[in-house]
Amino acid sequence: MARTNSTFSNITVDALTEPQAEVELAELAGILRWHDELYHGQDQPAISDADYDALVRRNNAIEARFPGLVREDSPSRRVGASPASGFRKIKHNVPMLSLGNAFDQQDMRDFADGLRNFMRELNDPAMAIELVAEPKVDGLSLNIRFERGQLVTAATRGNGMEGEEVTENVRTIVDIPSKLLGQDWPTVVEVRGEVYMSDDDFLALNERQSQAGENTFANPRNAAAGSLRQLDATITAKRPLRFFAYAWGEVSEPFALTQWEARQKLQAWGFKLNEPASKFSVTGEDFVELFAYYETIQDKRAKLGFSIDGVVVKVNRLDWQSRLGFVSRSPRWAIAWKFPPEQAMTEVRNISVQVGRTGKITPVANLAPVNVGGVLVSRATLHNQDEIQRKDIREGDTVVIQRAGDVIPQVVSVVMDKRPEASHPYVFPHNCPECGEPLVRNEGEADTFCVNGLNCPAQAMERLMHFVSRDAFDIEGLGIKNIELFFAKGLVHSPVDIFTLEARDGESRPPLREWEGWGEVSARKLFDAIERQRRIPLERFIFALGIPQVGQSTARLLARHYLSLRHWRECMGLAENQASEAYEELVSINGMGQNMAEDLLNFFREPKNLEVLDQLTLPNDGQEPLLTVTDFTPPAAASAIAGKTVVFTGTLETLSRNEAKARAESLGANVAGSVSKKTDYVVVGADAGSKEKKARELGLKILTEQEWLELIGG
Ligand code: AMP
Ligand code: ZN
Questions:
Q1: Is 164 contained in some domain?
Q2: pTM of the predicted model over 0.70
Q3: Ligand 1 pocket: which of 56, 103, 140, 141 to mutate (most atoms <8 Å of CB)?
C-alpha cells in the first residue's frame, strides 16, 4: 500500500519552498490516486478517512499557497475513480462534479464570504444573496439524456468525465419518465439527480437477499449502486430504485433563470424533487433562515424514509452560477453542509493486522457488528502501532466508533468503565502474519513494514492486483477474485505468469475452460483481454510496477523524462552510484524528491524485480518478448492561451481579481502573482504600479482589460 507520508510532510505548508511544494504535490497526486482507486474502484480502503482527509487538506493547502503549481492530475481536480469495466463508457459533455463540504455555521459564513469576494456587486455585506437548500440524498448520481423529450441514454458519474452507460437499467426505474411530460423542454436536455433506495425497501431487499443466501448490502447507497450497476437489466428491474432530480448537464438552450425555477421545470417534466427544499436569502449578518433550515432537516432526518447526509446549498440565480463557475472539482456556487459524524458503541472482538502492497502493516479492529447511522460496521481501522497505544485500545474493550458519509469507520475512544478485568494491552506483532518474517519499524516512522518483498505472499498478491488494476494494465476479467484464485492455485505468482497463462494452459492441471465456473467463452475472453494488453505505454508500465511512492503522476514524470524503457533502465542502473550524473539527473527531475528517488533505486537494487523486468520485456529463447512497452509520446497543445502565463495587475473594471483569475485558469492559462521573463501577458487595470513598470522594462506583452477580454473571447 502506498505510504501516507510524502517527502516534506514534516515541514509546515508555510515553510515549504516552491521546489519542495512542487515535489510534494506530485507525490500527493500519486498517493491519493492510489487510495481513490482502492476506495472507490475496489471498495478496499487502505488508510483511515482521517489520514485520507489530512492528505487532501495538505494538498489543498499547498495548492492554495502555490496556485501556479496545481497539477493537471491534481487530486483536487478528480472525482472518485474511473468507471468499472463491463459497461460501455459514456463521456460527459458537461463534467459531473463533486461538492465542497461545510461542517458548521462558520463554514457556511465562509462560503457566503467567498461569493462576496468573487462577485464585485456582492461586496457590500448588506446585499442579500438568494440561496436554495435541499436535502443531500445519499445515493449515486446519474445523468439522463433526453433528445426531443425522449430518454436516449443514461450514465453514472464514473470519474466525473466519463461514466458507465446504464440506459437499459434506468428504463426500469419508475420515477424516471421515458418521455418528458409537456412540451416545454429544450431539444436536448440532460437531467441529473440521485438514484437511491428508501429505508424500507432497503431493509426488505436485504431480507430477501439473506433468505436467498445472497450477500446483503451494507447500506441503502450500496444497495442502490449495486442494483443499478447490473449488467443484466432484468435484475435492476426487480430492485426498488427511486430517483430525485436536482440538476442538469448539457442543454441545447437555457430553460430557467433560477435554481428554484429549474426545479419546478424538472417537476413539470415528470420528475420527483428532493424535498423539503427551501429558498431564502442571507446577508453578511443574517443567516437565520439558513441555520433554521439546517436544523429542521436534521430533526426530520430520521423520518424522511430515505438516507441523507446533509443539505446542499446553492446560489439561486443561474447567471451567477455560471459566473462563479468551478474550483477544480466542485462548483463555487454550491456547497454540501454535512451532518456531524454518527457514532455508536461496540466491542472489539480482536485486533488483526493487514499487509499491504509495499509491506506496510495496518492494524484493524474486528468489531461486534453494529449499526452506525444505517450502516452495519464490523471493522474499523486502527492506523498504526502508536495510534493503538495512544488510545490504549485492547481486545475485549468496548469502544466508541464513528463514521461520516463514505469514509472508513474509526475508533474514537475506549469506554474505560466497560473494560474487562482480565484485559491487557495489545501487543503489536513482531512477525509478519503472512510470511513470518520479523517486522521492521524505522526510527521516527509511524508505520511498520514487512520487508520480505515479493517473498511475502500478501505483498506478492497485492502487487499483482496493482499490476492489473485499472490505471495499470487494466486487464478485463482479471480482477481481485481471479487473481486470488490463480494465486491460490499456484498458476500466477508474478506478473510474468499472466502473460504466459494461455501458453501454459492445461500444462499441469486441467485447462481453464474446464474449471468450475469457467467455460470455453470465459476462458477465451480472458486470454483475449490479456493479449490486447501486450502493448502498453511506458507511463502505465512504470505505474504498474508498483514501486513505493511512484503513483500515476510520478510514473508519468519518469516516462516524460526518460522516454523509453531501455533508456530509463539504463539510467536507473547508473544512478545507483550517487556521485554519477545519472543520479544528479534523476533527483533534478521536477517533481522527484530524494526520498522518492531512493525508493526507485531500491526497486532496481532488488534482483527479483530485475528478473521480472527482463522476463517481461526482453526476448526469451529467441521468442518475441512478452510485452512491448511503447515510448512516451508528448500530448499536443490545446487552445491559444492554454499553457500561457498571465499576470493581472491594477483594478479591473468588470471583474473582481478572483473572477478574472478563475476565467483565465478555466481556459488553461497559468495565473502568476509576479512578472518575470516567463510571463506571456500582463493585463493592466487602473492604478497598476510596479508590475506594469517591470513588464515594460522586460518588453512583455501588455494588454488592457478590454484587449484581454477580446483575446479570451468576451
Ligand atoms: P460528494 O460526493 O460528497 O462530493 O457530494 C456530491 C454529490 O452529492 C453529488 O455528486 C450528488 O451525487 C450528491 N447529491 C445529493 N443530493 C444533492 C443535491 N440536492 N444537489 C446536488 N448534489 C446532490
Ligand atoms: Zn510478510
A1: yes
A2: no
A3: 141
Distance from the alpha carbon of residue 452 to the mean position of ligand 2, in angstroms = 6
Residue nearest to atom 14 of ligand 1 (CA): 136
Binding site membership of 99 for ligand 1 (Cβ less than 6 Å): yes
Domain shared by 610 and 684, yes or no: no
- For the chain, the domain total comes to 6
Q: Domain range for residue 459?
A: 452-533
Q: Which residues pair with 414 in a beta bridge?
A: 399
Q: How confident is the model at residue 462 (pLDDT cuts 50, 70, 90)?
A: very high
pLDDT digits (tens, 9 = 90+) for 357-401: 989 999 999 999 888 876 778 999 999 999 999 999 999 999 999
Residues 265 and 379 in one domain: no
Catalytic residue numbers read 136
154 and 277 belong to one structural domain: yes
Greater pLDDT, 232 or 184: 184
Task: Give the nearest ligand 1 atom to 338 CA.
Answer: 3
Q: Assess whether the C-beta atom of 277 lies below 6 angstroms from ligand 1.
A: no
| Residue 84 reports pLDDT greater than 60 | no
Report if residue 511 sits inside a domain.
yes
- Together in a domain, 258 and 213: yes
> Does the Cβ of 309 fall within 6 Å of ligand 1?
no
Q: At a CB cut-off of 8 Å and minimum separation 6, what does 633 contact?
A: 537
Are residues 136 and 277 part of one domain?
yes
The answer, yes or no, to whether residue 32 has pLDDT greater than 90, is: no
Ligand 1 atom at shortest distance from the alpha carbon of 139: 12
Q: What is the pLDDT of residues 565-609, one digit of tens each?
A: 999 999 999 999 999 999 988 988 767 878 899 999 999 998 989
The answer to whether the beta carbons of residues 177 and 270 sit under 8 Å apart is yes
- The DSSP string of 53-80 is HHHHHHHHHHHHH-GGG--TT-GGG--S
In a domain, 87, yes or no: no
Tally of CB atoms within 10 A around 211: 8
The answer to whether the CB of 431 falls within 8 A of the CB of 341 is no
Query: Is residue 525 located within the same domain as residue 602?
Result: no
Q: How far is CA 155 from each of CA 142, 227, 468, rounded to the nearest angstrom?
A: 6, 14, 25
